[in-house]
Design brief:
By secondary structure, this protein is of the alpha/beta class. The chain contains eight helices and eight strands. The chain folds into two domains: 145 residues, HAD superfamily/HAD-like (Rossmann fold, 3-Layer(aba) Sandwich); 49 residues, no CATH class. The strands form two sheets. The protein has a six-stranded parallel beta sheet with strand order 5-4-1-6-7-8, with helices on both faces. A two-stranded antiparallel ribbon has the order 2-3. The longest helix is centred in the first third of the chain and has 14 residues. The chain binds magnesium ion (MG).
Length: 200
């Protein structure tokens, strides 16, 4: 088994942070649900997609320190290190946001991994050269191929179901918000504890 793992919304949990910033900027009503999807859908439906895009740049660029890993993900990494299951982090991330201030999004993501102790041998234990931020989805797919992943874990079914996704790689959907309960083309997991049970 050789596992590839997506980064945003698979390792990093952004629930709460988008809601907080949107409230601070007076973009959403107070009673809105706190998930990232709820904030995005509200702004989209309200014709304010640009505000959403700018907010993503802000969160991914300068507010990463307020974001936590999903519960259990560090334990999962640690387990894989102990049992010698090779892991790669393979993500699609542009270098700079599409709009707004020109943060270095790759640098922010690398720092976050350091600060959350993903590279410490007593914590996540993943080597720094096993982390890839690719600037297009095509390159992300190519990286999954060249790393030789046997399994890939991602929060987006539309990515896993792309026609050129390598057919010999098992596709695991990380779905903590239970948005895709009816999906039958992908193996679906609701928590990192469930994924840990699957591999142990
Ligand atoms: Mg993702």
């Amino acid at each position: 088994m050789l596992l590839g793992i997506d980064f945003d919304n698979t390792i990093v949990c952004y629930d709460g942070i988008f809601h907080r910033i949107a409230l601070e900027q007076d973009l959403i009503p107070k009673g809105l649900a706190t998930s990232k999807d709820a904030v995005r859908n509200y702004l989209r439906d309200d014709g304010r997609e640009d505000e959403w895009t700018k907010m993503q740049g802000l969160v991914y660029g300068s507010k990463m320190d307020s974001c936590m890993p999903y519960p259990g993900v560090l334990d999962f990494f640690h387990f894989c290190k102990e049992t010698e299951i090779p892991l790669f982090i393979i993500s699609h991330k542009t270098r700079h946001p599409f709009m707004g201030e020109k943060y270095d999004l790759h640098k922010a993501a690398y720092s976050w991994l350091e600060n959350q102790r993903f590279h410490d041998s007593e914590n996540g234990g993943i080597e720094r050269n096993r982390v890839f931020f690719e600037t297009t989805k095509e390159q992300k797919i190519e990286r999954i191929r060249t790393c030789g992943c046997t399994h890939f874990i991602d929060d987006l079914p539309e990515f896993l179901l792309r026609p050129n996704f390598p057919g010999n790689v098992s596709r695991w959907l990380f779905d903590p918000a239970k948005n895709y309960q009816g999906i039958n083309k992908l193996r679906r997991f609701e928590s990192w504890q469930d994924i840990l049970s699957e591999v142990s």
